[in-house]
Amino acid sequence: MLELERVGAYLLPWEFSPAWVIVCLAAAGCYLRGLKRLRSRGQAPGFWRPLAFLLGVGGVYAVTQTHYDYLSQYMFFTHRAQHLVLHHAAPFLVALAAPLPVLAAGMPSRITNLPGRAVAGRILSPLYRLLQHPAIAPLLFVGLIYFWLIPEVHFDAMLSHQRYQIMNWSMLLDGLLFWWLVLDPRTPDQGGLGYGARVLALLVVIPPQILLGAYLTFSESVLFDVYAVCGRAWPIAPLTDQQLGGLITWIPASMMSVIGVLIVIRYILSDKGDADKGGASKAKAEHERGMPQP
Amino acid sequence: MNAAGTMRRRHSRFPAGLLSKGALVGGWFTLGALLSGCSDPGWQTKDISDLMPPLEFQLTSESGEAVDAQDFRGDATLLFFGFTHCHDVCPATMAHLDSIMGELDEEARDDLQVLFVSVDPARDDPETLRDYTTNFGPEFVGLTGSKDELNALTRRYRVTYGYGEKDSEGHYMVSHPSAIFAFDRSGEAQLLIRQDDEREAVLSDLRRLLASG
Fold this sequence. Notes:
The complex is a heterodimer.
Chain A: H1 2-11, H2 18-40, H3 48-64, H4 68-73, H5 76-96, H6 100-106, H7 109-112, H8 117-131, H9 136-148, H10 151-159, H11 161-183, H12 195-204, H13 206-218, H14 226-230, H15 238-277, H16 282-288
Helix pairs in contact in A: 2-3, 2-6, 3-5, 5-11, 5-15, 9-11, 10-11, 12-15, 13-15
Chain B: H1 2-12, H2 18-35, E1 46-47, E2 58-61, E3 66-68, E4 76-82, H3 89-101, H4 106-110, E5 112-118, H5 126-133, E6 140-144, H6 147-156, E7 162-163, E8 174-175, E9 180-183, E10 189-193, H7 199-211
Parallel strand pairs in B: 4-5, 5-6
Antiparallel strand pairs in B: 1-10, 2-3, 2-6, 4-9, 7-8, 9-10
């Protein structure tokens, strides 16, 4: 019983934040509802895409609204792992799931018919297009990682609840934008970004991440004193903490780009296959694309 | 095909609208400037008046009595977390503080108190704490509390502590914050003093803190 209570305590949020809970629950709920509707129409997207989507949303929830969040506030390497999920792994899975049709099917009609929706779209779409410009998106992707790791900025973000939240939200939103841009299931003909630009975007973000990760890993001095100032979750040598954090920033983060490139190559091949076979199979391939079959 | 054409044109139209959209980029960087903090230029150590709540706690004093933050209002307060078996950060910080405070006027020194909160209540009972703080000046007061009481206080100031594995002799390390939090006479959070802050900077800020209110 005691054991159960302890496990329960780990699953509860360290700092309850309604925004994360609402967004994660709404996304998962909307998706499951859409899935049920599509399934009844025989249009459900198979097994892998829903799995990827729910894993992504679950990952976001797990690193923000469980006891894990405590670790990410009081240790550098666990913080880096949190951002690896928020900025890389979770948005990657969500984008790979190509969830928009399912989410649209699950969206309550009250929300889809909200007044002012067109106006909001008109205001937001230039901003969206700017952020998704193939030259801006990678810059923003890498820039945000660097920005929040400026020691003074990092210090304040860890000290202030509000800034900590802004940091994590900005990482998640930027991650969604970037991975959506490069893993967009639409072909260039349908309005998706050209495949060459996608591969380029994925490749240009690798060197700066390697550089930063290596710098953190090989630095001989402690760069982020906030963890000493605020105390660590358990006694660990500060340099070890920083080196582990550096390795997380360096290796898995850049690996994600490589996986991204492989997926884009698969898109290119299947797009070419469609062109060879003609337009008839296009809709079918489009339906299947987005989640590589194992 | 028409829809696709429009999308493409949208991408290629971008440079024309670049100037107007530069404002958005500008906005992004302004946000960055805001976030990087704009502290009161008068303070030389870290200003936390906007970041941290006033001093509140319920703990046990080194004489074994239950005390709360109200008992310490009236004087400027420095708050520091540690444990008496600490070999590096705590003795260094306490000695450093003691020597800095030695440079204050006697009157000013009387108006300042240093709360040393032990986050290792298993080893630091009131008596151990009392023996420890007598190594330093009379301004040093030892406090500790139950796990819940300590957690409430550390959480309030967004700091934490943790214990390492016990060795064969039962010794263990404790991770704890190295920051010193400074509060004014009414208990409002003012400053965060770090270990590597310049001596002159700390002294100047302490004088200013004591002169106010």
